[in-house]
Amino acid sequence: ISCMTLTARRNVDFYSEVRMWEEVQRVCPGNLRSYAILSSALVKEGRYREADKQCMALLRKLDRHTNDITIVSWQGIGAPPFLVRMRGIAYHNLGRSAFCTGENERAERYYRAALALSSRMPRVHFSLALLLYQRGDLEAAIEGWNQCLELEPDNIAAHCAMGMALSEQGKTREALLHYEHVLARDSSHMRAGYEMAWLLAAHPEKELRNGKRALAIARNLGAASGWGSAVNFDLLAAAYAEIGDFDRAIENARKAIDFEKSRLERDPANEKEIRKKLGDLRNRLKLYETKKPYRLKD
């Protein structure tokens, strides 16, 4: 029984990426890859200080490796690609930690340092583009996500981000192509699905709307999320209104309103935000009751 217990405990530990790579590092402290992967896993879990420590430890080890290699056999040639990539990952993860804690200037310095080592790092292009997008520099962000997609054409996150940025620029057709690419690979991708379905259900330009497609996406996303949000019913109502089924549009709009009302009781701290959403939902319900579909503003 004790052996089975130990095995079970070990298996549970190894479900955690952090614990697994901590164990690798304990057994083989010279394993450079363990520092890179562990720092990435720690960032993912929001443990930014620990991630930074792993990155700095990796950089110190890389400095020693680079010096040794240069002295022995690499003088005039440069560090091997593996060491360059490890340093790039360390800079990237230091940048991610800084970005997640609001230190955007520091994050940008690390991202650009990583790309100075190698421009063929799609995830760094993505991260830098996200920072630029949040700063409001849409053109630079789009350029960065394009560079990411040139290196990694099926990067779902980059396609979704491109769709959002292009939509903000009014380039709806291009945005829809990127959302479609995402949904072709992950039909339950929430962000891309919601963005695309709203455009298809409620865009001001008739030729860009497709109510049946919007309805299919809305149903799929609702089922995938367990119908756990007013947004599910709100989107479904808009899609039904677009195809002229106003009875179901009204039914689902009322469900969305009821959902937000119950949320108001559970979450009084966000009363202002919830009441604004309720106002928007009631305005859409009034449209459906007069047999008018909802339209997004230009």
**Roughly what is the average pLDDT, rounded to an integer?**
91
Would you list the SSEs in sequence order as H and E?
A: HHHHHHHHHHHHHHH
Q: Name the helicity range.
A: over 70%
Radius of gyration: 24 Å
Number of H/I helices: 15
Structure description:
By secondary structure, the protein is mainly α. 79% of the residues lie in helices and 0% in strands. It has 15 helices and no strands. The chain has helices at 2-15, 17-27, 32-44, 48-74, 81-100, 104-117, 122-135, 138-151, 156-168, 172-185, 190-202, 211-224, 230-242, 246-266, 271-289.
Structure characteristics:
298 residues; mainly alpha; 79% helix; disordered N terminus
Brief write-up:
The chain is 79% helix and 0% strand. It has 15 helices and no strands.
